[in-house]
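In the previous chapter we treated chains in isolation. Here, by contrast, the input contains two separate entities that must be folded as one system, with a combined length of 590 residues.
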Amino acid sequence: MVIKTITQANEALEKGELRSIDLVNEHFDRINEHDSKIKSFLTLNKEEALAQAQASDRRRAESKSLGDLDGIPVSIKDIVAIKNLRTTASSNLLANFVPAYDATVVKKLKEAGAVILGKVNCDAWAHGSSTENSDFGPSKNPWDLERIPGGSSGGSTAAVAAGFGLASIGTDTGGSIRQPASLCGVTGLKPTYGRVSRYGLIAMASSLDCPGPITRSAEDAALMMRVIAGQDYLDSTTLPEGKFPEVNVDKDGNAPLKGLRVGLPKEYFADGLDSEVAQVVEEAIDQFKKLGAEFKEVSLPTTKNALAVYYVIMPAEVSSNLARFDGIRYGVRSEKAQNLAEIYDLSRSEGFGAEAKRRIMMGTYVLSSGYYDAYYKKAMQVRTLIIEDFHRVFDEVDLLLTPTSPTPAWKMGEKTEDPLTMYLADIYTVSANLAGIPGISVPCGFVKQDSSQLPVGLQLLGNQLDEDKILRAAIAYQQATDWHLRDPEF
Amino acid sequence: MQKQDLQKVAELSRLKLTEVELEKFSEQISDIVKYVEQLNEVDTQDIEPTSQVTGLMNVLRPDEQVEGSSDPDRKALLSNAPEQESNYVKVPGVFAGGDE
């Protein structure tokens, strides 16, 4: 049997039918043979990974397994710090940066015995929806190598879809886990803001950033959440919740979602949604009905302004967070700089790419004296209205179901010249970040374009801390379908 | 956004733009600014701004003395600085003429 999920691997490891070292070697072999086509990995962690796998096998042999992730090969988006392993944010500016500590998510994965294969590509500083902004070149979509994998966590989703690691950690600021998961046909969960520690992330927009799991199945995402979620004294915005709940789904009943009230926000099924994607999502809705879910149309009227709010608040926070990259304590220092002011100006001008420069300047503009109230404060007020929309609908329904992305994966280069068109790719995902609510993207079918089958994802959104509800619905759907287990040929 | 406005923003952002960048970015950022100006149409009278979505406030640890941590250690942190000298990050002189 080819092992596709953590759940399958864990079962085989538990029974002694599989050793972690063989599993990890198999994944490295696949990376060596095929990643030249996908370009998902930036840095491999082979020596340490093999040692971790051997240590895991010894624990299993002594019946001292650390749990469901012990010996499981995973990758980490290159914007998350790993001690003593190059971490670049896919940017030239940090091309030589070696963190002195582990991010909390990494520390927790290591403590759970997970085996870290290496660091995967993303848009530089996580700015983008395609990985084309990576200073080290774009990753490719395993379903069609001419197309982008989505972004910014596109290296993570391409790797998981291609079978390089059973899971990956991504980060989601405006859709950067869910959108590429949708475009690569994998499962991606953006947790509630503060449910997973941001400590050790190279910060993009601190009021929006959420690290989360990218996996082949929702069941695996739940296993990952049980390890990575929790309050962390190194991130004062983490929530004081207890252990992440176990997510149980009735496997035998024929209506496991009986009584679940699901809302269809009409603004997410309006103009701009590709008609074939809409068709695939409609079929998924029928499947959810068969599982017992009840649907009703709801309205989130401020949705139409969400992207505008995002493109004020996000760059404002980006401009503050990227101010620390000044060529003094880390990163590349310009060789042309003659004095301190030039170190700042030239190191930043040479080190940042076009998208980071645009966002820094946009953010500086909306925060500058005379414009702050008109743009930044206004956006924070409309953010309140977006949150109130969600509060209102979550009084009526348990979850919302929407498409994750208005289109399937597009061709390389198609949107690079016009930043605003690229921004529209996040139209269904940004609201969840602005409201701090959790969302998951799960594969729900394919559309045919040219001669390629391209994956489509649906998004389930829940109220803050309702990850277990979202996961339960996603697991039930995946028990009834096999879209999430289809493999690309490349 | 006019080119001279963008030039001012670039200076505030500690970025030096080439003429080509100035041209391209002023056009692109103008488009983005125009797009976000749709927010002017939203009535926000008496609406409180949101900057923190979960409502957590004043998260404090107990006021107890704790052992200093050697992790991350000074040497590892310093090793990322482009220039160092005897356990310090090195920068050129701050004042004109005071270099080296």
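The two ends of chain B are 41 Å apart (CA to CA). Chain B touches chain A through 53 residues (CB under 8 Å). Compare these points with the single-chain example from earlier in the chapter.
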